[in-house]
Amino acid sequence: MLDAEDNSDTPDDADTPEARAEAVRALEAEFGELITHFRRVITENANRVSPGLLPGAYKIFTTIARCERVTVSTLSERMLMDKGQVSRTVRELEDLGLIERTADPADGRSSLLELTPLGTERLSAARLPQEGMLLHTLEEWSLTDIGNLTRLLHALGSGVTPRTNAAD
After folding, report:
1. Residue 19 belongs to what H/E stretch?
2. Is 116 exposed, middle or buried (0-12, 13-18, 19+ CB in 10 A)?
3. CB within 8 A of 72, min separation 6: which ones?
4. HTH marR-type domain location, by residue (predicted)?
5. Would residue 68 be called left, alpha or beta, if left means φ above 0 and alpha means ψ between -120 and 50 degrees?
6. Residue 168: predicted pLDDT
7. pLDDT at res. 12
8. What is the CATH architecture of 17-131?
């Protein structure tokens, strides 16, 4: 893992293919660490919602929470998951009393999924330990650094070359 204080990106750094490959390997390693951390948080939150709840079910549960009201078809498309697997997980979440189905007024053949009051309460309680963690972690960062990280992550996620500054 890199030292957070490492400022080795000076103009004197040689941008050779080898240096670029090494920089990308270091970035991949940091992403691996970050993903491991996220997986741990998701697993812990799933267990806080309901002991034994699998992380995949928690992801479906939180996606329903974000969408507010969503069909199984839309949910499976959004999560790039098999509709049958999503349906089984939805039944599990229903059995736990975390979500409920209501008739879709736009299409009588389908139903909308939404959190129950219990589901909303459990999700809020599960997220409580992480609430403010990012804010606390970035407390000493400058607004410029936070903005740059946001801009670079957006560019990476979108597959575009990042702009050098916000005025571009």
Report:
1. helix 17-49
2. middle
3. 83, 86, 87, 90, 110, 111, 113
4. 28-158
5. left
6. 46
7. 52
8. Orthogonal Bundle (1.10)
Backbone conformation region of residue 14, classed left if phi is above 0, alpha if psi is from -120 to 50, else beta:
beta
Q: What is the Cα 105 distance to its own chain's centre? A: 30
Cα(16)–Cα(1) distance, integer angstroms:
22
Read off the amino acid at residue 43: T
d(CA 152, CA 163): 8
| Domain range summary for the chain, segments of one domain joined by + | 17-131, 132-168
Among the listed residues 114, 112, 56, the one whose alpha carbon sits nearest the alpha carbon of residue 86: 56
* pLDDT (0 to 100) of residue 50: 98
Q: Indicate whether this model's pTM tops 0.90.
A: no
Contact 98, 115 (CB under 8 A): yes
Cα 43 to the center of its chain, rounded Å? 13
d(CA 80, CA 75): 8
Confidence (pLDDT) at 5? 52
